[in-house]
Amino acid sequence: MAIVVNLDVMMAKRKIGLSDLAGKVDLTLANLSILKNNKAKAIRFSTLEAICRALHCQPGDILEYVEDEQQGTDQG
To answer: Can you name one GO molecular function term for this protein (predicted)?
Structure first.
């Protein structure tokens, strides 16, 4: 996966638990856990905005682009 979600890192920096954040951003614990564990396939901008507001951070603090190892190699 090329996009890595660093939500757990920001949560640790802000010393906030999953259930507290879920309440602040109005997401179910299950959906927030999927996002936190890098299992999400998409995120709504409104959800990202709410998370950034709750954690006092920027989207780039949560989302990171990492090149796949196979992208740079010749597969032929």
So the answer is: DNA binding
Report the Cα–Cα distance between both ends of the chain, in Å, rounded. 21
DSSP one-letter string for 20-73: HHHHHHT--HHHHHHHHTT--S---HHHHHHHHHHHT--HHHHEEE---TTTTS
Into how many domains does the chain fold? 1
CATH of the domain at 7: 1.10.260.40
Q: pLDDT by residue for the chain (76 residues), tens digit each?
A: 589 999 999 999 999 999 999 999 999 999 999 999 999 999 999 999 999 999 999 999 999 999 887 655 544 4
